[in-house]
Amino acid sequence: MPRTVNPQDFNDKRKEVPDNEYARTIPCNHVSLSAPFHWLSLGLHDFVRMPLISAFYGLCFMAAAIGIVLLVQWQGTHLVVMPSLVVYMLIGPFLALGLYDASWEREKGHHASLLHSMKAIGRNSSSQWAFAVMLAVCMIFWMRIAALLHALYPSVQGAPITDFLPFLVIGSLVGMVLAAIVFSISAFSIPLMMERRVDMMTAVFTSFNAVKSNIPAMIVWAAVICGGILIGFATYGIGMLFTMPILGYGTWHAYHETIKKKHH
Protein backbone atom coordinates (compact mmCIF):
# COMPACT_ATOMS: atom_id res chain seq x y z
CA MET A 1 0.00 0.00 0.00
CA PRO A 2 1.52 3.36 -0.95
CA ARG A 3 2.61 5.57 1.90
CA THR A 4 0.53 8.67 2.50
CA VAL A 5 2.63 11.76 1.99
CA ASN A 6 2.44 14.31 4.77
CA PRO A 7 3.15 17.88 3.58
CA GLN A 8 4.86 18.50 6.91
CA ASP A 9 7.57 16.05 5.85
CA PHE A 10 8.62 18.40 3.08
CA ASN A 11 8.70 21.36 5.45
CA ASP A 12 10.89 19.44 7.89
CA LYS A 13 13.29 18.43 5.14
CA ARG A 14 13.59 21.97 3.92
CA LYS A 15 14.56 23.05 7.43
CA GLU A 16 17.38 20.52 7.60
CA VAL A 17 20.59 21.98 6.23
CA PRO A 18 23.31 19.44 5.47
CA ASP A 19 26.77 20.21 6.80
CA ASN A 20 28.31 20.16 3.34
CA GLU A 21 25.88 22.56 1.70
CA TYR A 22 27.67 25.46 0.04
CA ALA A 23 26.96 29.12 0.84
CA ARG A 24 24.45 28.56 3.63
CA THR A 25 23.75 30.76 6.63
CA ILE A 26 24.25 29.24 10.07
CA PRO A 27 21.79 30.66 12.64
CA CYS A 28 22.99 33.00 15.36
CA ASN A 29 22.08 33.89 18.92
CA HIS A 30 21.06 37.32 20.12
CA VAL A 31 23.56 38.87 22.52
CA SER A 32 23.22 41.74 24.95
CA LEU A 33 24.73 45.19 24.59
CA SER A 34 27.17 44.44 27.40
CA ALA A 35 28.35 41.15 25.85
CA PRO A 36 31.44 42.70 24.18
CA PHE A 37 32.85 43.65 27.57
CA HIS A 38 32.35 40.07 28.74
CA TRP A 39 34.23 38.82 25.66
CA LEU A 40 36.99 41.29 26.39
CA SER A 41 37.29 40.07 29.98
CA LEU A 42 37.45 36.46 28.78
CA GLY A 43 40.13 37.48 26.30
CA LEU A 44 42.12 39.11 29.08
CA HIS A 45 41.74 35.95 31.17
CA ASP A 46 43.10 33.82 28.31
CA PHE A 47 45.93 36.31 27.80
CA VAL A 48 47.05 35.87 31.40
CA ARG A 49 46.61 32.10 31.40
CA MET A 50 48.59 31.55 28.17
CA PRO A 51 51.60 33.88 28.43
CA LEU A 52 53.85 32.07 25.94
CA ILE A 53 51.26 31.89 23.18
CA SER A 54 50.12 35.45 23.90
CA ALA A 55 53.69 36.75 23.76
CA PHE A 56 54.48 34.95 20.50
CA TYR A 57 51.48 36.21 18.56
CA GLY A 58 51.64 39.60 20.25
CA LEU A 59 55.24 39.98 19.06
CA CYS A 60 54.20 39.01 15.53
CA PHE A 61 51.47 41.64 15.45
CA MET A 62 53.80 44.17 17.06
CA ALA A 63 56.54 43.53 14.50
CA ALA A 64 54.08 44.03 11.64
CA ALA A 65 52.77 47.28 13.13
CA ILE A 66 56.27 48.62 13.83
CA GLY A 67 57.21 47.73 10.26
CA ILE A 68 54.36 49.89 8.95
CA VAL A 69 55.30 52.80 11.23
CA LEU A 70 58.98 52.62 10.22
CA LEU A 71 58.08 52.35 6.54
CA VAL A 72 55.96 55.50 6.75
CA GLN A 73 58.75 57.37 8.52
CA TRP A 74 61.39 56.13 6.09
CA GLN A 75 59.37 57.01 2.99
CA GLY A 76 58.28 60.33 4.46
CA THR A 77 54.79 59.89 3.02
CA HIS A 78 51.53 58.33 4.09
CA LEU A 79 50.96 56.90 0.62
CA VAL A 80 52.53 53.63 1.75
CA VAL A 81 50.06 53.18 4.61
CA MET A 82 47.24 51.65 2.57
CA PRO A 83 49.45 49.15 0.68
CA SER A 84 50.96 48.16 4.01
CA LEU A 85 47.51 47.66 5.47
CA VAL A 86 46.63 45.38 2.55
CA VAL A 87 49.56 43.16 3.51
CA TYR A 88 48.47 43.40 7.15
CA MET A 89 44.99 42.24 6.12
CA LEU A 90 46.55 39.19 4.48
CA ILE A 91 48.71 38.06 7.40
CA GLY A 92 46.46 39.23 10.24
CA PRO A 93 43.78 36.53 9.90
CA PHE A 94 46.39 33.79 9.89
CA LEU A 95 48.04 35.10 13.04
CA ALA A 96 44.62 35.33 14.66
CA LEU A 97 43.99 31.66 13.85
CA GLY A 98 46.58 30.64 16.41
CA LEU A 99 44.85 32.71 19.08
CA TYR A 100 41.46 31.23 18.23
CA ASP A 101 42.89 27.73 18.40
CA ALA A 102 44.46 28.38 21.80
CA SER A 103 41.18 29.64 23.26
CA TRP A 104 39.35 26.71 21.70
CA GLU A 105 41.77 24.24 23.28
CA ARG A 106 41.34 25.81 26.72
CA GLU A 107 37.58 25.78 26.22
CA LYS A 108 37.70 22.02 25.61
CA GLY A 109 39.77 21.51 28.74
CA HIS A 110 42.94 20.70 26.79
CA HIS A 111 46.41 22.09 27.26
CA ALA A 112 46.94 24.83 24.68
CA SER A 113 50.36 24.69 23.07
CA LEU A 114 52.13 27.04 20.69
CA LEU A 115 52.83 24.23 18.22
CA HIS A 116 49.19 23.17 18.12
CA SER A 117 48.06 26.75 17.60
CA MET A 118 50.45 27.16 14.67
CA LYS A 119 49.00 24.06 13.02
CA ALA A 120 45.63 25.82 12.92
CA ILE A 121 46.86 27.67 9.83
CA GLY A 122 46.59 24.44 7.87
CA ARG A 123 43.02 23.74 8.96
CA ASN A 124 40.70 24.62 6.05
CA SER A 125 43.51 26.64 4.49
CA SER A 126 41.89 26.95 1.06
CA SER A 127 38.85 28.79 2.42
CA GLN A 128 41.02 30.88 4.74
CA TRP A 129 43.34 31.97 1.92
CA ALA A 130 40.36 32.79 -0.28
CA PHE A 131 38.94 34.93 2.50
CA ALA A 132 42.26 36.71 3.06
CA VAL A 133 42.48 37.50 -0.65
CA MET A 134 38.91 38.80 -0.58
CA LEU A 135 39.81 41.14 2.28
CA ALA A 136 42.84 42.35 0.34
CA VAL A 137 40.64 43.03 -2.70
CA CYS A 138 38.28 45.00 -0.47
CA MET A 139 41.19 47.07 0.78
CA ILE A 140 42.42 47.73 -2.77
CA PHE A 141 38.91 48.80 -3.76
CA TRP A 142 38.87 51.06 -0.72
CA MET A 143 42.15 52.61 -1.88
CA ARG A 144 40.70 53.33 -5.31
CA ILE A 145 37.63 54.97 -3.79
CA ALA A 146 39.90 57.07 -1.56
CA ALA A 147 41.89 58.17 -4.62
CA LEU A 148 38.69 59.27 -6.36
CA LEU A 149 37.50 61.15 -3.29
CA HIS A 150 40.81 62.98 -3.16
CA ALA A 151 39.55 65.01 -6.12
CA LEU A 152 37.25 66.77 -3.65
CA TYR A 153 40.24 67.95 -1.60
CA PRO A 154 40.81 71.72 -2.02
CA SER A 155 43.75 72.44 -4.30
CA VAL A 156 44.35 75.92 -2.87
CA GLN A 157 46.49 76.25 0.23
CA GLY A 158 44.86 78.06 3.11
CA ALA A 159 41.36 77.32 1.83
CA PRO A 160 38.53 77.99 4.31
CA ILE A 161 37.16 75.09 6.32
CA THR A 162 33.93 75.14 4.32
CA ASP A 163 35.88 74.04 1.23
CA PHE A 164 36.94 70.90 3.08
CA LEU A 165 33.41 69.90 4.07
CA PRO A 166 32.53 67.94 0.88
CA PHE A 167 35.75 65.95 1.17
CA LEU A 168 35.34 65.31 4.89
CA VAL A 169 31.63 64.49 4.86
CA ILE A 170 31.56 62.29 1.75
CA GLY A 171 34.87 60.65 2.62
CA SER A 172 33.71 59.86 6.15
CA LEU A 173 30.38 58.44 4.99
CA VAL A 174 31.97 56.24 2.33
CA GLY A 175 34.62 55.09 4.78
CA MET A 176 32.02 54.19 7.40
CA VAL A 177 29.97 52.18 4.90
CA LEU A 178 32.98 50.26 3.62
CA ALA A 179 34.27 49.66 7.15
CA ALA A 180 30.85 48.37 8.23
CA ILE A 181 30.75 45.95 5.29
CA VAL A 182 34.26 44.63 5.94
CA PHE A 183 33.55 44.22 9.64
CA SER A 184 30.25 42.46 8.98
CA ILE A 185 31.71 39.83 6.67
CA SER A 186 34.82 39.23 8.78
CA ALA A 187 33.62 39.42 12.40
CA PHE A 188 33.12 35.65 12.76
CA SER A 189 34.28 34.21 9.44
CA ILE A 190 37.78 33.03 10.37
CA PRO A 191 36.89 31.16 13.60
CA LEU A 192 33.91 29.60 11.84
CA MET A 193 36.08 28.35 8.97
CA MET A 194 38.60 26.99 11.45
CA GLU A 195 36.22 25.19 13.79
CA ARG A 196 33.60 23.84 11.38
CA ARG A 197 35.71 23.82 8.19
CA VAL A 198 32.93 25.51 6.23
CA ASP A 199 33.41 27.17 2.86
CA MET A 200 34.22 30.85 2.59
CA MET A 201 30.76 31.95 1.44
CA THR A 202 29.05 30.14 4.32
CA ALA A 203 31.40 31.90 6.73
CA VAL A 204 30.76 35.29 5.12
CA PHE A 205 26.96 34.89 5.02
CA THR A 206 26.87 33.63 8.60
CA SER A 207 29.06 36.46 9.88
CA PHE A 208 27.02 39.09 8.05
CA ASN A 209 23.77 37.66 9.41
CA ALA A 210 25.12 37.54 12.97
CA VAL A 211 26.26 41.16 12.83
CA LYS A 212 22.98 42.28 11.25
CA SER A 213 21.02 40.49 13.97
CA ASN A 214 23.05 42.07 16.79
CA ILE A 215 23.77 45.58 15.54
CA PRO A 216 23.98 47.39 18.94
CA ALA A 217 26.37 44.83 20.45
CA MET A 218 28.41 44.65 17.25
CA ILE A 219 28.84 48.43 17.19
CA VAL A 220 30.26 48.24 20.70
CA TRP A 221 32.51 45.31 19.75
CA ALA A 222 33.75 47.10 16.63
CA ALA A 223 34.53 50.17 18.75
CA VAL A 224 36.48 47.99 21.20
CA ILE A 225 38.50 46.47 18.34
CA CYS A 226 39.20 49.88 16.79
CA GLY A 227 40.25 51.19 20.18
CA GLY A 228 42.69 48.32 20.64
CA ILE A 229 44.21 48.83 17.20
CA LEU A 230 44.49 52.59 17.72
CA ILE A 231 46.25 52.04 21.04
CA GLY A 232 48.64 49.70 19.26
CA PHE A 233 49.59 52.19 16.55
CA ALA A 234 49.57 55.16 18.94
CA THR A 235 52.29 53.41 20.93
CA TYR A 236 54.32 52.81 17.74
CA GLY A 237 53.24 49.19 17.61
CA ILE A 238 54.29 48.25 21.14
CA GLY A 239 50.70 48.17 22.36
CA MET A 240 49.95 45.43 19.82
CA LEU A 241 51.86 43.07 22.09
CA PHE A 242 48.93 43.24 24.48
CA THR A 243 45.89 44.44 22.56
CA MET A 244 45.93 42.02 19.63
CA PRO A 245 46.14 38.76 21.63
CA ILE A 246 43.39 39.97 23.97
CA LEU A 247 41.20 40.95 21.03
CA GLY A 248 41.98 37.66 19.30
CA TYR A 249 40.95 35.60 22.29
CA GLY A 250 37.93 37.84 22.78
CA THR A 251 36.88 37.29 19.17
CA TRP A 252 36.83 33.54 19.72
CA HIS A 253 34.54 33.94 22.73
CA ALA A 254 32.38 36.36 20.74
CA TYR A 255 32.06 33.78 17.98
CA HIS A 256 31.31 30.97 20.40
CA GLU A 257 28.55 32.95 22.10
CA THR A 258 27.01 34.46 18.97
CA ILE A 259 26.96 31.63 16.42
CA LYS A 260 24.64 28.76 17.28
CA LYS A 261 26.42 25.54 18.12
CA LYS A 262 26.27 22.53 15.87
CA HIS A 263 23.79 19.90 17.07
CA HIS A 264 24.95 16.31 16.83
Summarize the structure.
InterPro entries: DUF2189. The chain is an all-alpha fold and about 260 residues long.
Walkthrough of the structure:
With 264 residues, the protein is mainly α. It has one domain. The chain contains 11 helices and no strands. It has helices at residues 7-15, 35-49, 51-75, 81-107, 114-119, 125-149, 161-186, 189-196, 200-213, 215-234, 240-258. It comes from Vibrio coralliilyticus. This is Cytochrome B6. InterPro entries: DUF2189.
Residue-averaged pLDDT, rounded? 82
Q: Outline the biggest β-sheet.
A: none
> What would you call the shape?
globular
Poorly predicted spans = 1-18
Q: How many H/I helices?
A: 11
**What is the percentage of strand-forming residues?**
under 5%
- Helix and strand string, N-terminal first? HHHHHHHHHHH
Total strands: 0
Determine Rg (CA atoms, Å): 21 Å
Query: How many distinct domains?
Result: 1
Q: Could you say which structural class the secondary elements and strand pairing correspond to?
A: mainly alpha
Regarding quaternary structure, how should these chains be classified?
Answer: single chain
- The termini sit apart by 34 Å
Helical content stands at: over 70%
Topology record:
Blueprint: H1 7-15, H2 35-49, H3 51-75, H4 81-107, H5 114-119, H6 125-149, H7 161-186, H8 189-196, H9 200-213, H10 215-234, H11 240-258
Helix pairs in contact: 2-10, 2-11, 3-4, 3-11, 4-6, 4-8, 4-11, 6-7, 7-9, 8-9, 10-11
